[in-house]
UniProtKB/TrEMBL annotation:
<dbReference type="GO" id="GO:0019450">
    <property type="term" value="P:L-cysteine catabolic process to pyruvate"/>
</dbReference>
<dbReference type="GO" id="GO:0005737">
    <property type="term" value="C:cytoplasm"/>
</dbReference>
<comment type="function">
    <text>A cysteine desulfhydrase that generates hydrogen sulfide, H(2)S. The H(2)S produced by this enzyme stimulates respiration in M.tuberculosis, mediated primarily via cytochrome bd with a lesser contribution from cytochrome bc1/aa3. H(2)S modulates the balance between respiration and glycolysis, and also contributes to redox homeostasis. Probably eliminates toxic levels of Cys (which can induce oxidative stress).</text>
</comment>
<dbReference type="InterPro" id="IPR036052">
    <property type="entry name" value="TrpB-like_PALP_sf"/>
</dbReference>
<dbReference type="InterPro" id="IPR001926">
    <property type="entry name" value="TrpB-like_PALP"/>
</dbReference>
<dbReference type="InterPro" id="IPR047586">
    <property type="entry name" value="Cds1"/>
</dbReference>
<comment type="function">
    <text>A cysteine desulfhydrase that generates hydrogen sulfide, H(2)S. The H(2)S produced by this enzyme may modulate central metabolism.</text>
</comment>
<keyword id="KW-0963">Cytoplasm</keyword>
<keyword id="KW-0663">Pyridoxal phosphate</keyword>
<feature type="domain" description="Tryptophan synthase beta chain-like PALP">
    <location>
        <begin position="23"/>
        <end position="313"/>
    </location>
</feature>
<dbReference type="Pfam" id="PF00291">
    <property type="entry name" value="PALP"/>
</dbReference>
<dbReference type="GO" id="GO:0016829">
    <property type="term" value="F:lyase activity"/>
</dbReference>
<dbReference type="GO" id="GO:0004124">
    <property type="term" value="F:cysteine synthase activity"/>
</dbReference>
<dbReference type="GO" id="GO:0030170">
    <property type="term" value="F:pyridoxal phosphate binding"/>
</dbReference>
<dbReference type="InterPro" id="IPR050214">
    <property type="entry name" value="Cys_Synth/Cystath_Beta-Synth"/>
</dbReference>
<comment type="similarity">
    <text>Belongs to the cysteine synthase/cystathionine beta-synthase family. Cds1 subfamily.</text>
</comment>
<keyword id="KW-0456">Lyase</keyword>
Length: 360
């Protein structure tokens, strides 16, 4: 017989979903790219402030329906911040204790939001330590380790309604190019790119999925070589994306191509985008938009028209002391001026096919 608490917990999550409107699809008009339509899926408007709200909801439902989460179960997650914020939100909704295992360098604002929702932060020195530490904490506390890096690709129903891919295509249905030429996405767990790629194939759509990857991440190298032994020595400076190992939820065969993006290009794009959009976005959005502009430039060069969609993953207000602090950027990222110049003069490299490496 279904546990009453579990039934009520699932009902509470579904009620929260019903109270939440879908996120906006923002159209950008860029005169330097004639015939190209740009769209940003604004995931920062979720109640917990980021794309990871979708993942956290799915992970909680997955854990509840699998019998892993019960009344009073401590929830432990390995996260660089945004997933932990969203999971803390749902843990508070269900009255469950929550612990986020994260590197010391995580943005201060994310830490504040986790504690605001009643969560606790457990810090480690290196990004690669979060997995083992989370497992040990879950065992010690008789809790449930959410393990977003393993379960992100399977917790979301990529065939069904209300996933992010379905939402994008519904919102694009009345646009001049209802089926975008490209959807551009960065990978943290790999779960969102897996959902997008599977949905595109399931629906028989002609969109290409391009995944952008920051420095100090091994997803790009793994995509080219398919070697699971490839590891990195440090974590990505672009919070929320890039990993020092190929995560189980990263599914390379649903991706059409990948682009490696320099960190300085990601941050320069944030500043450029603030002028275009009138608001601040997080660093992973800068990575996404840089890749989108590179593809658009190649389309213009080939005299093609069409649409490109990417994600605005979270708000830049979370990063005022890092990515929007010039001193921090100079120390940790380096000189972003050459990329700012390229952006302001629409001189983005156009040969995206060479930049993308292996093609699936």
């Amino acid at each position: 017989m279904t546990n009453v608490w579990v039934k009520n917990a699932i009902s509470a999550i579904e009620a929260d979903f019903q109270r939440s409107a879908d996120t906006h699809l923002i159209r950008l008009t860029l005169p330097d790219y004639p015939g190209i339509y740009f769209y940003l899926k604004d995931e920062s408007t979720h109640p917990s402030g980021s794309l990871k709200h979708r993942l956290a909801r799915s992970l909680f439902l997955y854990g509840l329906c699998n019998g892993w989460i019960k009344e009073g179960t401590p929830i432990i997650e390995a996260s660089s911040g945004s997933t932990a914020v969203s999971e803390a939100y749902f843990a508070r909704l269900l009255g469950l204790p929550f612990i986020a295992v994260m590197p010391f360098c995580t943005a201060k604002r994310k830490i504040e939001q986790i504690t605001f929702y009643g969560g606790r932060c457990h810090f480690v020195e290196q990004a690669g330590q979060i997995y083992t530490e989370s497992e040990q904490l879950a065992h010690k506390l008789n809790g449930h380790y959410m393990d977003q890096f393993t379960y992100a690709e399977r917790a979301t129903d990529w065939r069904g309604n209300n996933n992010i891919a379905d939402s994008i295509y519904r919102q694009m249905s009345r646009e001049p190019y209802s089926v975008p030429n490209y959807i551009v996405m960065s990978a943290g767990t790999g779960g969102t790119s897996a959902t997008l790629g599977r949905y595109i194939r399931y629906q028989g759509l002609d969109t290409q999925l391009v995944v952008v990857d920051p420095e100090d991440s091994v997803f790009y190298d793994y995509y080219q070589q398919r070697d699971l032994s490839i590891t990195g020595s440090c974590g990505s400076k672009i919070e929320g994306i890039g990993r020092p190992r190929a995560e189980p939820s990263f599914i390379p065969d649903v991706i059409d191509s990948m682009i490696k993006v320099p960190d300085a290009a990601s941050i320069a794009t944030l500043y450029w985008l603030e002028n275009v959009l009138g608001r601040k976005a997080g660093a992973s959005t800068g990575t996404n938009v840089w890749g989108m502009l590179q593809l658009a430039k190649a389309m213009v060069k080939r005299k093609e028209q069409g649409a490109l969609v990417t994600l605005l993953c979270d708000s830049g207000e979370r990063y005022l002391d890092t990515y929007y602090n010039p001193s921090w950027v100079e120390k940790n990222i380096g000189d972003i001026t050459p990329y700012l110049t390229m952006l302001h003069h629409a001189e983005i490299p156009a040969n995206a096919s060479e930049a993308s490496g292996h093609k699936a």
